[in-house]
């Protein structure tokens, strides 16, 4: 927990719930001025973001409905531009523009990043703005060199708060590449063990 996150997420009604349910006292220390603000990424958080191949981003529309969309791409497609700034390229997709439309009226985003192998998850709150062709240098930083899809815009997110989520109930899941690497390593280990054991006893003939 952190001061910035509790400032933003612990609304008066949330605090009432905590008080009634008995957890308010435990969380009060995060409101103290000496609590770590956690409003910019440290090294661990930046490395975690840079290693992701997907994340979820929530926005809020003008009717008040929250909206959650999955974003996926090559590892590192969610760029860490500096400790308080993330960004990613928005490619031409289903052309519903729900996130884009929501962000026009309300720039608040909630990002959820999950590492199913290490069983870690990070929550981020921030404000997003669109990056267009009038900012070519910034846009270029958001597009991975391997990309061939049509880039419609970029999104730059100014981080306002982050918080690590507890690892409970995360089922470990592995990508095909991660499974292949584990299998390769296991096979190499078995071969090395067999070679170092030398030739086995000869079969009687
Ligand atoms: C052909 C196609 C390819 C897409 N490729 C990606 C992709 O690589 N990464 C991604 O996060 N979303 C991808 N999407 C999803 C869309 O880009 C989606 O429009 C975008 O996430 C915005 O969604 P929203 O309107 O729900 O906010 C793809 C959609 C289509 C139809």
UniProtKB/TrEMBL annotation:
Pfam families: PNPOx_N
Coiled-coil stretches: none
Signal peptide range in chain numbering: none
Domain Pyridoxamine 5'-phosphate oxidase N-terminal: 43-137
InterPro entries, alphabetized: Pyridox_Oxase_N, Split_barrel_FMN-bd
Name of the protein: Pyridoxamine 5-phosphate oxidase
Organism this protein belongs to: Inhella crocodyli
């Amino acid at each position: 927990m952190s001061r910035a996150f509790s400032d933003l997420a612990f609304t008066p009604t949330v605090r009432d719930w905590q008080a009634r349910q008995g957890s308010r006292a435990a969380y009060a220390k995060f409101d103290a001025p000496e609590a770590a603000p956690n409003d910019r990424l440290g090294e661990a958080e930046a490395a975690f973001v840079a290693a992701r191949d997907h994340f979820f981003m929530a926005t809020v529309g003008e009717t008040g409905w929250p909206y959650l969309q999955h974003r996926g791409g090559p590892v590192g497609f969610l760029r860490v531009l500096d400790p308080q700034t993330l960004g990613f390229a928005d490619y031409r997709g289903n052309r519903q523009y729900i996130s884009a439309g929501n962000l026009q009226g309300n720039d608040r985003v909630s990002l959820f990043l999950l590492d199913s192998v290490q069983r870690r998850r990070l929550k981020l709150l921030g404000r997003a703005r669109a990056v267009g062709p009038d900012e070519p240098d910034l846009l270029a930083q958001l597009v991975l060199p391997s990309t061939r899809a049509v880039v419609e815009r970029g999104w730059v997110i100014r981080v306002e708060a982050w918080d690590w989520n507890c690892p409970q109930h995360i089922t470990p899941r592995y990508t095909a590449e991660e499974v292949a690497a584990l299998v390769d390593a296991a096979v190499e280990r078995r071969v090395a063990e067999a070679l170092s054991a030398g030739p086995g006893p000869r079969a009687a003939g």
